[in-house]
Amino acid sequence: MQLHYQKELKIISRWWKDLQVESRLSFARDRIVECYFWIVGVYFQPKHSRGRIILTMVIAIVTLLDDIYDIYGSTEECEVFTRCMERWDRKAAHDIPEYMKFVYEKTIDLVRAFNTEVKWRDARYVPATVEEHLQISTRSGGCYLLSCASFVGMDHIATAESFIWVSSAPRIVCTLCTILRLSDDPETFEREQVELHVAPTIGSYMKEHNVSVENACEKIKELIEDTWKDFNHEWLTLANVQPKQLLERIFNLARTMEFMYKHDDKFTNCQNLKDRIHSLFVETFASTY
């Protein structure tokens, strides 16, 4: 398996290098290996090689978009970029498969959500409620797009009906999006207070309930636990509705997201992943024979 992963990493790294991200987007996070490490947790089996490669590329592009809006682009530049994305030929989209339509629509929705957060950031606007915050921030997390993209490499298992189902934003995907957003905020709250950044859900909870930071953090953690219960309920309920192989992709996205953001934002602070990445992709495994 390690040799298999190494071959895939070469393919993905070559693609990333050809994009010339380091020279053209020097402000962006160079996280292609970390992206692949993340996606190996979504599907590790050899037969899902194509799925791993596709989803790694998707999450890498989402990361670039996030950095453009979150770190580098001005309000005016982000507005122009969003309008350019919205002007893609929507008529042509009618002729593409359902799963491509969903990816197309969710990509547009993603940049719109990013752009709204840029406006919030620059206006120093704190959404009045957690619900108002999540209406945008769950979309900007990219989970709707990633959920659909995780089906793309599943061959015949993912039917047209499967893509129609996931494109309807079922509750299991919605709770996945909420888990990502809420899990990230407690770990990045202090850092984001130092820099100009979009207000986290913690700030909205403080505003909505007039409580301290400490109290808000605890309540957000409780909300994360409650959302996990909803997610697990959906996972068990859908067992006889959708193929388990597809549901596992969404389930594993949630598991890996919790790993990435629980106790620390490991994706941004990637030095905390160094040893794990080395042990999985580089370090020789001892033979048991």
From TrEMBL:
What GO molecular-function term can you cite, just one? magnesium ion binding
Keywords for this protein: Metal-binding
In Swiss-Prot or TrEMBL terms, this protein is called Terpene synthase metal-binding domain-containing protein
**Which SUPFAM superfamilies is this protein grouped with?**
Terpenoid synthases
- Pfam families listed in its UniProt record: Terpene_synth_C
Concerning InterPro entries, the annotation shows:
Isoprenoid_synthase_dom_sf (IPR008949), Terpene_synthase-like (IPR050148), Terpene_synthase_metal-bd (IPR005630)
Q: Which residues form the Terpene synthase metal-binding domain?
A: 17-112
Superkingdom of this protein's organism: Eukaryota
Query: What GO terms describe the biological role, i.e. biological process, of this protein?
Result: terpenoid biosynthetic process
